[in-house]
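From the pipeline queue, job 12 of 40. The input is one protein chain; the requested action is below.

Action: predict structure.
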Amino acid sequence: MCWSASAQTDQDLLNDAKSTQDVLVYGMGYQGQRFSPLKQINKSNVKKLVPIWSYSLDDARGAESFPIIKDGVIYSTTHNSTVAVNALTGKQIWRVMHEYPPETLRVVCCGIVNRGAAIFDGKLVRALMDNHIIAMDIKTGKELWRTASPDPVKPENGYAMTGAPLIVGGVVIVGVAGAEYGHRGFIEAYDVNTGKHLWRHYTVPAAGEPGVETWANKSYETGGGSSWVTGTYDKDLDLVYWGIGNPSPWNPRSRAGDNLYTNSVIAIRPKTGEMVWHYQISPGDPFDYDAVQTPVIANLKIAGKTQKVVMQANRGGFLYVLDAASGKLLAANPFEKVNWADSVDLATGKLNYTDAYKGAVEGKKVEVWPSSSGGVNWQHVSFSPITQKLYINTLHIGMTYEAPPETEPYTPGKPSGPGTVKRKPVFDDPNVRGFLKAVDPMTGKASWATPYKSPNWSSTLVTGSNLVFTGVMTGEFQALDADTGKILWSFQTPSGILSQPVTWEKDGRQYVTVLSGIGGVYAMFSGDPNLTTVPNGGTMWTFALFDK
């Protein structure tokens, strides 16, 4: 195949949501809607969908990468490799391996994975698990620059980069994982042409900074606040929206206060990192309810007027709708089973806590819904401007929870999560551990909910023909009717699917691409009996209609 590597400009990235031939931005556009207007594959013919090729990723870790597609080439990542393959045949064009010092992988809490790269001006940019950012030539894979994240960002200090970068106006923006080792979280940026470090925005304040008063007993020094999932961008407001994770340690009895700016959605300027607004979803979070889910930008009709909003289906089980310009709370409603709070006060943004929450922070053993895995975890939702619904893979799992008294100060670099609290999963029905739901953003109510024996850890994709694509942890790749939730098509891949499906077209034919490969925290630690026979091993699959 003859392919070109034309430059990717700012305008190309801004138009990505409307483009159907290329997929250039994480989330299929800066808005993160994961919506495609393509309609060739529809409800009537989706049963004719067949695989046209598969490609081995040669990796036994979890396959969570978001595929980038440009000019007939697919670029994908694993934790230790970056690949370019022919989009129509699956034939490898180049493959680059990334080696790590032995200590790098010892401190990654929740899965040795990578969620993808970013593309701009002939460069493919990604983060490595040892906290280096690198740029590669998209034609050859040759390394163009490499920059180490400045001190103290080292694996031995609890830091690891697993997320995909977001490139805005030539600025490469990245987040970091590792709150479970007591680091101080941040978002930072690099020059896409040179790799020069441009700015860093810490998500936990230091002594003397605004918000530090919300951390008792200098607990900000080990505060957490990871930023491990990629954000979104709005050009009109020139704001990047990013979700911030849990405070550290998990046990809330050693860090009294709201613990700003953890468990928040923040809006920052891409050129400087200046924070314009923040909304804290779960102050003083005791349950590991990360707010890292990618904020989705959309226009909704509210009280008769069209309004630009930022939406987040939060791990705590509430769906938040915020004004994109100001962060003002517009709606907050449960989309899954929740018992730690009854509601959210729209005027103040304050949660109305229940006895389950109050007992938890007092050290009592209580039953809490959802579990620490959340009503949704990192897996991404999609939004259809046609149906005005969010398509969410939810978890339907609760937990017993007990936070024992802190007997000694927490030491940075030690695990601050499991072991500091006592948790055990509970179920309404162990044969239904999750749903795929079509949810109204303003009410949280689902028009349909399709049950699954294990929760789906795959992101969703919705198309102009009202199809929803998603993966199942036991390996099925599926298409559902976006109006009814009926499963219309299913294909068994070799391993569990945790990844992010995308759709695109070439020469008048629509394709769907997804990665298969089980891994991640739920597969490793949940004890889910449905996953015991699911083999490891990553592969990338591309599908199209049989009769085209």
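Job complete. The chain has a mean pLDDT of 94.
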